Amino acid sequence: MYVRLHSVNISRNADIIVTHIVACLMQSLCFCVYAACGCPLYWKAPMFYGAGGERTGFVSVHSFIATWRKLLHSCHDDASRFIYLLAKPGCNYLEQEDFIPLLQDIVDTHPGLTFLKDAPEFHSRYITTVIQRIYYIVNRSWTGRITMMELRRSNFLQTLALLEEEDDINQITDYFSYEHFYVIYCKFWELDTDHDLYIDPKDLARYNDHASSNRIIERLFSGAVTRGNAVQREGRMSYAEFVWFLISEEDKKNHTSIEYWFRCMDADGDGVLSMFELEYFYEEQCERMERMGIEPLPFQDLLCQMLDLVKPESPGKITLGDLKRCRMAHIFFDTFFNLEKYLDHEQRDPFAVQKVSVYMFNVKYTCSANISYSISDAGGAF
Ligand SMILES: [Ca+2]
Ligand SMILES: [Ca+2]
């Protein structure tokens, strides 16, 4: 049994057509192969390419099963098999682009994304978002390379397997939810007024009605939390970088978010937040409060409060470990650069707030109230 790609007219959409054909053929093929070798369903695109499908345009069931057997023989768990299939030859880690064939196949064949078939312009945005969410959660080392250890420690492969059982992709809230993608992208679209897919500090300042301070925005564009390429130096933030910002802003309790904001606040990069750095950020909060007619707490009093909250191991020096341990990092960070949330926390007992487990996408609920995410609406909006 062979699956072959016949010649396709070269057109502007040739890549998309080829991808669709590959996807359809693979879908019809996958059930028997899946049954034969027990390969998880959404591993089919990497398996197809791993078995030589990309080079030749077809794979035989025989070569498919042979590839799977080889994998079982040489790799001893799902994480190592997955990396073997997706990584570039000779690499034992995954870079962002290695996920594209897998995700394009999910876009093409998952029942919860069928409405995207006629909107190829959304495919790459959705894929970019999912990739950023994967790296945000899984790539704990911030290297841009997911290692076997990182993959094993994460829930990614289990979540990928869930896609097989759940037709409503929005139920898969880790990584894949279309609704989450849509909310993040809408937020970006609102800020990116000229729609060139980059935003500058002024654009970002408008996020959630100027909730973030100018000093933290300046740090965000300094390269503290991005890969510092040429684009970054021009003072622009890409959509991919915005995904990291939004997740970090909306959920300041997860470890990546704590690292993200710590890097921003540690202006001299020495690995500790000094009293000078804290004062620098609090100064702007004070100025904003005064403009609003609110009397700010003097810095020394605030400092006592914060040290009491964080309980650093070395007096007067706050480390990343202290913030992760104290479980109050969200209150700490909001105090220094998000005035609205700071004032909100001030009105509550911080220890009561700690008990409330708020899922990362608070923003989803405010946003989805006025956004219908049917594709026809989306086509008009983008
Ligand atoms: Ca722009
Ligand atoms: Ca420092």
TrEMBL record:
Instruction: Give the organism, scientific name.
Output: Sphaeramia orbicularis (orbiculate cardinalfish)
What is the stated purpose of this protein? The B regulatory subunit might modulate substrate selectivity and catalytic activity, and might also direct the localization of the catalytic enzyme to a particular subcellular compartment.
Q: Which GO terms describe its cellular component?
A: protein phosphatase type 2A complex
UniProt cross-references to InterPro entries, sorted A to Z: EF-hand-dom_pair (IPR011992), EF-hand_13 (IPR041534), EF_Hand_1_Ca_BS (IPR018247), EF_hand_dom (IPR002048), P2R3A_B_D_EF-hand (IPR048855)
- Keyword presence, Iron-sulfur: no
This protein's source sits in the domain of life called Eukaryota
Residues covered by the EF-hand domain:
253-288
Q: Where does the sequence pass through the membrane?
A: 21-43
| Keyword annotations of the record | Calcium, Membrane, Metal-binding, Transmembrane, Transmembrane helix
The name this protein carries in UniProt is: Serine/threonine-protein phosphatase 2A regulatory subunit B'' subunit alpha-like
What Gene3D superfamilies does its record include?
1.10.238.220, 1.10.238.230, EF-hand
Gene Ontology MF annotations: calcium ion binding; protein phosphatase regulator activity
Q: Does the keyword Metal-binding apply?
A: yes
Question: What Pfam families does the record tag this protein with?
Answer: EF-hand_13, EF-hand_5, P2R3B_EF-hand
